[in-house]
Design brief:
single chain, mainly beta, Type Iii Antifreeze Protein Isoform Hplc 12, SH3 type barrels, 3 domains, 4-stranded antiparallel sheet, 3 helices, 11 strands, elongated
């Protein structure tokens, strides 16, 4: 799972983004609200349907506690971030902050617990040799419990895998992880690229050049200026973009 994957906010890293959540239902149980919210976020991040996920809560803890029969209006709820870090990622642990009204008082509460998630997992259909470029025909998505997987295999969509090179051998049926694949090629040899030259303090020159090598973001490659035929070395900063420091 790529840089996009590493930023995935559920079960991979603690999300810092402020997310407003609103549903048309006047009132609902906390468990129903959490299920809707998790499905919505997972589907959005993986570009899939909410129906692709099943979520069961093994435990839910609220502090300060709600009344036993409490429900709340979801329009008053705001999620400030949720997720688990380290070895707890694949265990299904979650923690989030909600603004909840229990009928008498509205205030921020901490909600934590354990969620069992069954969702799509990308696996390889055949043995993949080291150096192989992953194609559409090499992978498929199946549903399985996420608790059994390493966090690097979660939220891996087909779009994130296709076109990337296998770093090592991947056995048939194994889940695809971000660590198993190189970053996608950002520049190929012979391409015209956008060149930014940092010529000194406050001096920035924008130009064009021709890549002499392929590479990924962060790689240094050779490039040629078409007018002078001068060869430069620059670092790839993005898709078809290179920066040179003189």
């Amino acid at each position: 799972m790529s840089r996009i994957l590493r930023s995935f906010i559920f079960l991979l890293i603690a999300a810092q983004a402020f997310i407003n959540v609103s549903y048309s239902t006047a009132a609902e149980t906390l468990e129903t609200f959490l299920e809707k919210t998790f499905k919505e976020e997972l589907a959005k991040k993986m570009k899939l349907s909410e129906d692709d996920f099943s979520i069961q809560f093994e435990s839910i803890r609220v502090y300060p506690a709600l009344k036993s029969a409490a429900t709340f209006n979801s329009k008053t709820a705001k999620i400030f971030g949720f997720g688990a870090v380290g070895a707890k990622r694949a265990q299904g642990l979650f923690s989030l902050s909600l603004v909840i009204s229990d009928g008498e008082n509205a205030g921020e509460r901490t909600v934590s617990g354990v969620a069992k998630i069954i969702g799509p997992v990308l696996i390889v259909k055949n043995n993949i040799l080291r150096g192989h470029i992953i194609g559409e025909e090499d992978v498929q998505s199946i549903r399985m419990p996420w608790k059994t997987l390493s966090s690097s295999s979660l939220a891996m969509s087909k779009d994130e895998a296709v076109g990337r090179r296998a770093r090592n051998f991947i056995a048939k049926g194994d889940p695809v992880s971000s660590e198993a694949l190189d970053e996608p090629v950002a520049i190929t040899a012979g391409e015209n690229i956008a060149l930014t030259v940092l010529a000194g303090p406050g001096v920035i020159v924008h130009s064009r050049a021709v890549a002499k090598q392929e590479g990924r973001v962060g790689d240094f490659i050779r490039l040629e200026q078409p007018d002078t035929k001068k060869i430069l070395m620059g670092v790839i900063t993005g898709k078809k973009t290179v920066e040179v420091r003189l």
